[in-house]
Amino acid sequence: KNQVEQSPQSLIILEGKNCTLQCNYTVSPFSNLRWYKQDTGRGPVSLTIMTFSENTKSNGRYTATLDADTKQSSLHITASQLSDSASYICVVQPPFRAGNNRKLIWGLGTSLGVNP
Amino acid sequence: EAQVTQNPRYLITVTGKKLTVTCSQNMNHEYMSWYRQDPGLGLRQIYYSMNVEVTDKGDVPEGYKVSRKEKRNFPLILESPSPNQTSLYFCASSWGGNNQPQHFGDGTRLSIL
User: Fold this and answer.
1) CA Rg, chain A, in Å?
2) How far is CA B78 from the centre of its chain?
3) Which of B99, B103, B108, B110 to mutate to test the interface with A (most CBs of A within 10 A)?
4) Residue A100 confidence class, pLDDT cut points 50, 70, 90
């Protein structure tokens, strides 16, 4: 079982609509939780990083929330645009300790398509 | 412009022919890392480097080598490539502290025939 699971696996919405992507994780404790956006054929780009003590972080139309009690995070996209079509990946970083190389635990991503 | 540059972007080669994928970053980052991305498996770390001359294995290091002789460069070497190394490869860099975002290159798509 993956330590970081995302849902849905894929999603198609109409331009201008809002959507919410989910991330459930079992990594505990953790240092931070990240959301990345990956366009097809490109490298991932960081959207947000939340430490374990934060419960929300925004980056423009992207808002990430974190509930450490239920070990869930969500990424909300407001007023979607065609350029939002991409894979969105949830990543959890365990606390840094000698030997764990600041390891990141990657989810498999949600593929979002935004249609006109 | 701050960036991570990988070369080549695409390569088709044959089994056993040594190849090197270069990675260079211009942000003076201490930490650099190589990943491979395969369908259904997500990103998996191959090797990482905490600073010059400091490298260590990630989750899937078999069949790969790296070096970090300069801060900006972190090449990935496949001494004897095999078809199971056909994949999309990403180099990333970041500052050394916690909670630092990783900056990724645009990827190198390798096909080993």
Assistant:
1) 14
2) 11
3) B99
4) low
